[in-house]
């Protein structure tokens, strides 16, 4: 007898749904909650700024990709911080790149 693996497919929330949980200021790169408190913290493993969003199911999202999504309306494969500061999520500091390019820049080889 073979075991069946159950897969759960979670649909990505729309930009409008996401804005119920988080606000983004593209000029400052700051994320805030509906109550006005600043959102986000650094992931010690990746050294990236992450934002926890969601209602009953909370998920930690990469802040740069979330900023891109909230500003442009879609999630790119990879985003790089132009100035190299992973905590600076101003939209003018973010650039959509191929996934390998983002890794090479983060590793310091670019």
Protein model, in words:
The protein is globular. The strands form 3 sheets. The chain has a 3-stranded antiparallel sheet with strand order 3-4-5. Strands 1-2 form a two-stranded antiparallel ribbon. It contains 3 helices and 7 strands, in the order αβββββαββα. The model is unreliable at 5-10 and 103-110 (pLDDT under 50). With 110 residues, it is an alpha+beta fold. It has a single domain, classed as Homing Intron 3 (I-Ppo) Encoded Endonuclease, Chain A, CATH 3.90.75.
Overall tally of domains:
1
Radius of gyration: 16 Å
Report the major sheet. Answer: 3 strands, antiparallel
Proportion in helices: 10-25%
Number of helices: 3
**CATH first level:** Alpha Beta
Q: What percent of residues are in strands?
A: 15-25%
Q: What's the architecture, going by CATH?
A: Alpha-Beta Complex
Order of helices and strands: HEEEEEHEEH
Question: pLDDT under 50 segments (min length 5)?
Answer: 5-10, 103-110
What structural class do helix, strand and pairing data support? Answer: alpha+beta
CATH topology description: Homing Intron 3 (I-Ppo) Encoded Endonuclease, Chain A
Summarize the structure.
With 110 residues, the protein is an alpha+beta fold. A 3-stranded antiparallel sheet has the order 3-4-5. Strands 1-2 form a two-stranded antiparallel sheet.
Topology:
Layout: H1 15-18, E1 23-25, E2 30-32, E3 41-42, E4 49-53, E5 59-62, H2 63-72, E6 78-81, E7 94-97, H3 99-107
Antiparallel strand pairs: 1-2, 3-4, 4-5, 6-7
Keywords:
110 residues; alpha+beta; Homing Intron 3 (I-Ppo) Encoded Endonuclease, Chain A; three-stranded antiparallel β-sheet; two-stranded antiparallel ribbon; 7 strands; disordered C terminus
